[in-house]
Amino acid sequence: MKEINIVIEICGSAGEGTISAGEILSRFMSSQGYEIMSFDSYPAEIRGFGKCVAHTRISSSVINSPGKLADVLIALNDGHSISQLSALKQGGILVYDSQPAKAHEEDQSVLGWADPSVVSYGVPLAMLAQKAAGNLRGRNMVALGAIAALFNLDRDGFTGSIKDRYAKKKQIVIDSNVNSFLEGFDWTRENIEKKDDFTFDGVELTPQGEKLIINGNQLVAKAALESDLKFYAGYPITPATKIMEILSKELPGYGGTLLQTEDEISAIGAVIGAGYGGVRAMTATSGPGFALMTEFTGLSHMAEVPALIVNSQRGGPSTGIPTKTEQSDFNAALFSGTGDCPRVVLAPEDTASCYDATVLALYIAEKYQTLVVLLLDFFLSNSIRNIDVPGTPGPEMLNANVAPDEEELKDYQRYKITDDGISPRALPGTPGGISFYTGLEHDEYGRPNYSDKGHLKMTQKRYRKHDSVLNEAPSPQVSEFNGERADIGVISWGSSAGAAHEAVATARKEGINAASFSSMMLCPFPEAALLEFTDRCDKILVPELNYQGQFADFAAGIIKRPIERLNFITGRPMAAEDILDKMREM
Amino acid sequence: MPTNDHYVIIGNGPAGNNAATTLRDKDNEARITIVSDEAIPFYYKPKLTRYILDEIDASDLLVKQLSSYSDNGIRLRLGQPVDKIDPKTKTIFLHHKEELHYTKLIIASGSGARVLPSMRPFADCLKFISTYNQVMEYKDDIHKAEEFFIFGGDLVGFKFVRLLAKMGKKITLLIYPNAFWPFNLNDEMEGAIEKSLTGMNVELMVKDDIKTISALQNGYNVLTQKGKEARVDMVFSFNGLVPSVEFARGCDLDIDHGILVNETMQTNDPDIYACGSCAQIYNPNINAYTTSIGWPNAVVQGEVTAMNLLGDNRVIESVGRKYFDLEGVKIKTTWWEDIEELK
Amino acid sequence: METMQSEYLDEKLDQVRARDFLQYRSGDLPTWCPGCGYFGIMDAFYKACREMGLLHENICTVSGIGCSGRTPIFINSYGFHTLHGRSIPVASGLKLARPDLTVFAVAGDGDALGIGGGHLPHVARKNIDITFILFDNSIYGLTKGQSSSTTPYEMKTNSHPVGNPDSPLNPIRLALSYGASFVARGYAGDPEGMKEVIKQGTEHNGFSFIQILTPCVTFDKTNRTWKNLKENVHDLRVGDTADNMEIAMRAAENQPFGVGIFYRDKERMGYQDILKGLNT
């Protein structure tokens, strides 16, 4: 059975249609039954202002990671594409504009820097776009046409995907794009002699059901809406802003309210106010905003008010690198704030699980009256997958508040000591449930109380919620073992988990006896499951996208054994290839 | 003291590479760029025939690793044909529409297979063995093919014939004695050739010429003036080399067959030099421009050119393999002017 | 489970049990210093609630940190004692999520104008329907007498023993220029006047800003004392409609203090209505 696994990158300048070309390519390949994972990046290089790259991995089998290097680079902009050549494989394919409107200055042509092994195809993008539509805007479509012709993709099907993409635009826009595509396709058929081996001919595909082409931010917003979210407050910050933008449009239709606040302190404050009012509420932010929100984490915990913060991590610290991905807020998510302040932290591992994680996060926040932090990252927020349409949450996930019964309302104790740590919560407006919430240590009625005995009892009660949450947490993902023991056990989290599982699967095929473990639930952490796993592994490897090895440190505290670390802060998502290299060394 | 000099070398063969390394040796600061229309790194052209026979791997063809260029600070631009040169603005226009600026330029673009004028109508039917890409393209076909028609014949061609014969192929060889390249054959040589082919599956034709070549479904039909017919799988032309200097025409450089240079390898533009088989060098002894071929000549010329470009004043002497050894007969190489186009 | 005992005494309850606003007072007795102006504010608050006939369970009071932070615990309604400076964001979220509730936010001068000063412009320009009561005693009381954003220039405080180098803010002018649609001032020694502005502010659909001048009897012996306040307070005469911004700005002197309603924009829609209008 023939399989294909190919990474295509389109590199251009903002405004050249780079991202929309990538999107159309993804949609078309998805419609053909391929798995896709695509990722747009906006590298902030000194000479690359305005540079954008649409990275698309296309495969006939399951994709777990975006692929480190590209097989094909389509250069819409020579200047920007030069630096992107370093991400092109040896022997890869380069498509460049052979007839640019103006000659390149010295060293500004992408072909001038291509590795000798690269198979390059010069296509007169500008000229053909001009011919097709009378202007240069359609160069991206000409390039898609060239790719479609080179790989013998369905000309009419592709045209359909372009029409779908521009369905809401004027006819002239649709025509210009379609004509540019066809011009590129036909010219390439006519003039280019294929010199590479890539082809989609004869690839066998498993039939797929209805697919959703979506990114993590969109899924978080969708899951929140379908989980009865009624209030969102937020402040714009890359890469989380899109969540606010989607909800701003959709939330009123679901009977909810969106508030754009003056800062992140106000955003989390309003979320906690709404949560106190008894509706499901959330905010989304990134590192710098999360730092501000830290002020409120303690209040959510102490006053036992539900709140959900989505933190889409970017390069840090401080303002850091807003448009690059990193996993360096692990410590902040788990440990920020003062005092003994547990919270729940969930980190989805792939696009699809962003939905489930959001549903779960809102459920846990409401039921356990706690702060939940959902850790995404730039990559998960923005990478696009075609996933099965997620099932909407059932009523048991939607009505999670533990309300006081009649008996309890007779002498209502807001902070009643219970076995599972959950004190029944009367929402404002409930007769008989009048109560006082406070960030001061308090007694069961909420009255300030600083006694040592009282503080201990209340702290224990709040920590008990943690144990209860763990009972409802999704199980860790653990690979099969090759026999009783493994030489290498890979522990991973968040968006690196996919690459880790993929690397382990490949390693096993190579004869390396490896196993892998990842947990979406980071806090409380399934420590027993981790110990059970690591007890069967001789060496432990933790790959993650931060410098200091935040998760490795955390895991070391649990397993109390040395850990091999693999840390990258390149701003790119974790690559299975890199983990594999490390495992070969070990 | 850093300089802003940019030395551009067109050609990635022995002359160009030797010029580049010499320049780097003497000038640590200048930018040095090699431009080549071939997309593969510096390789041994003379070894191509051995590669066809699978005596060596493709990797054995490479003279230098790519890393040695970056280690020496030499920018290598491969697969980038030059469209034209503008000596006034000191700009080179590359085919992919990029403008390259030089302070000094060395043209070492070498030479390509010569198509005889009479064969131009049948050019589509002909195959050549003069570049890596051609060999890559034909290699499998050569192994598969049974019958070959080879005409013209030069030193490389003769080597190729022996190679095919060794592989057990059936060959028809048409030799033009007065146009053998790079020298004319005399009877003695002809005899030697004939003798050396004895025992091989080679049919030798002399004093005849091709009338037409027609492409068939899979193969070719060759008809000669004398009415002989050959039905073959592949037709190869070995009629020597012509300097690859088309891109330099029309820019006020003096060009005959190749680019004309004085004894110090300088063209009529003081900032442009030429060396290797694309150049015709003034030879005061015979008061004529001559071309020298062969790897060792190219190496020496590259070095001399680089030194002169940097201010030296060396005079080139054709050195090294002045004689070819053909089946025990010493043959003195000749100059370009000796070669007559076939009338 | 063992129930913890409250440390609070309720011996004084009997003294106030006879008063008709007792129902809005909680079982907990205020912890403020004897003679504090805040007692007067609370009395006015209870009276206003009673006169408006608000249901206990539908009132929510959100406070920050400081002496004023304790306010909700003394009110027999839902209350949320949040973070220093953050009563406005929490109250905003609460009101937008639960428009059926009557939401008060209370804060001191340090709370609202110092640490939380950044929130005021935005709640005002959005016109979120909460009633904000500023307990302005021009000093940090809970931390024992440091200069606040409304402490007069050159006044000696524990953080500025040789005199406050900073000029005070004018909260009324700030609120007016931020675009608050209801701006009023009360005085802790005038329960009727306070009750009136709290009532009108609560009934106003939109953000109501009410500054209450009050002494800190413990840490301010020179400036905003009962005596000084009494002498420097006069009734505002800005007209019944109070819809003239220029007059309001002129009347908003720091001293002498005019009390009453400075400005009221009845036409302006509350935030909830604005959102509704935009989304239909």
Give a count of the beta strands of chain B, DSSP E runs of length 2 or more: 23
- The helicity of chain A comes to 25-40%
The succession of helices and strands of chain B, N to C, reads EHEHHEEEEEEEHEHEHEEEEEEEEEEHEE
What is the number of helical segments of chain A per DSSP (H or I, 4+ residues)?
20
Neighbour order of strands in the largest sheet of chain A: 6-5-4-1-3-2-14-7
Determine the strand fraction of chain A and express it as a percent band: 15-25%
Strand arrangement in the largest pleated sheet of chain B: 3-2-1-7-19
| Biggest beta sheet attributes of chain A | 8 strands, mixed
Summed over residues and divided by their number, the pLDDT of chain B gives a mean of 84
Can you give the mean pLDDT of chain A? 95
Distance between the termini of chain B: 58 Å
Shape of chain B: elongated
Q: What is Rg of chain A?
A: 26 Å
Distance between the termini of chain A: 33 Å
Low-confidence stretches of chain B: 319-343
Helix content bin of chain B = 10-25%
Largest interface, by Cβ-Cβ below 8 angstroms: which chains and how many residues each? Answer: A-C, 58 and 46 residues
What would you say this structure looks like, in words?
The complex is a heterotrimer of chains A (586), B (343) and C (280). The model of chain A has no long low-confidence stretch (mean pLDDT 95). Chain A has 20 helices and 21 strands. Chain A has 586 residues and is an alpha/beta fold. Chain A is globular and about 85 Å long. In chain A, 39% of the residues lie in helices and 21% in strands. In chain A, the strands form three sheets. In chain A, strands 6-5-4-1-3-2-14-7 form an eight-stranded mixed β-sheet. In chain A, strands 9-8-10-11-13-12-19 form a seven-stranded mixed β-sheet, with helices on both faces. Chain B has 343 residues and is an alpha/beta fold. Helices cover 22% and strands 29% of the residues of chain B. Chain B is built from seven helices and 23 strands. In chain B, strands 3-2-1-7-19 form a five-stranded parallel β-sheet. In chain B, strand 5 (91-94) and strand 6 (98-101) form a beta hairpin. The longest helix of chain B has 15 residues, at 295-309. Chain B is elongated. Chain C is α/β, with parallel strands linked by helices and 280 residues long. Chain C has helices at residues 13-17, 38-52, 87-97, 109-115, 120-126, 171-178, 191-203, 226-232, 245-251, 271-278; strands at residues 59-63, 78-81, 102-108, 131-136, 182-187, 208-213, 233-235, 257-264. In chain C, strands 2-1-3-4-6-5-8-7 form an eight-stranded mixed β-sheet, with helices on both faces. In chain C, helix 7 links the parallel strand 5 and strand 6. In chain C, helix 2 packs across helix 7. The longest helix of chain C has 15 residues, at 38-52. Mean pLDDT of chain C is 90; it is low at 1-9. Chains A and C meet through strand 8, helix 9, helix 10, strand 15 and helix 16 of A and strand 2 and helix 3 of C. Strand 15 of chain A pairs parallel with strand 2 (78-81) of chain C.
